[in-house]
Amino acid sequence: MKLKELTKKQFNRVLKKDYKENFPRTERKSNRCLNKLLKSGNYFCYGTFDNEKIVAFLFFFKIQNDILFDYFAVCGDNKNKGIGGATLELFKETFSDCLIIGEIETPKNPTNTMIARRTEFYKRHNMFLTDVYVSLWNVPMRVITFPSVDKQTLLNKLHWLYKEIYEKTYGEKKYKKLVAVDIKI
Asked: What residue ranges do the domains of the chain occupy?
């Protein structure tokens, strides 16, 4: 398997099928927004390829040496075959000089099996579950990183990254209204 940046044609193919299948409408950015982000120079779309077939994809922001996951999914019938783990390991290798940051929803219902499975997946692949929680669009999330980083550094990076990404994407007014980042320790 290989991890590489998607061409525009591959990106559009992922948007039409796999992106829609893996993320509910309420969690998806519009195609227009994603294309605008791609043009910004700070947004990237990578795929894991098995021969020439895209078996997983990762959309993320990269600003300097900081990465923030946006979307990560395994495509179609490739789920539960170790491809997600292989993709994450390839990604960590490829971007070994970067701090990788992600967010995992914190369940309203502690028995939510999907969130529990997702959390265990990241733990198995040595992502660090931090004590830092954020709220984005009123959705509580727990921050994960690779490698581990001290809390103050992480807090500083999160404030900076969220402002850099969301304020530039949505404008200051919308950013303050929709992206009320509430960092709790």
From this structure: 1-97, 99-185
pLDDT digits (tens, 9 = 90+) for 69-122: 999 999 999 999 999 999 999 999 999 999 999 999 887 666 678 888 889 999
- Distance, in Å, from the CA atom of 185 to the CA atom of 175, rounded to the nearest integer, reads 22
Report how far residue 120's alpha carbon sits from residue 78's, in angstroms, rounded to the nearest whole number.
19
Architecture of domain 1-97: 3-Layer(aba) Sandwich (3.40)
pTM of the model: 0.91
* C-alpha span between 17 and 8 (Å, rounded): 15
pLDDT at 26: 81
* Residue pair 63/164 in contact by the 8 Å Cβ criterion: yes
Report CA 128 to chain centroid distance, whole Å. 15
Region for 159 from its dihedrals, namely left if φ exceeds 0, alpha if ψ lies in -120 to 50, beta otherwise: alpha
Q: Evaluate whether 22 touches 50 at the Cβ level (below 8 Å).
A: no
**CA–CA dist 118, 7 (Å, integer):** 28
Residues 155, 132 contacting (CB under 8 angstroms): yes
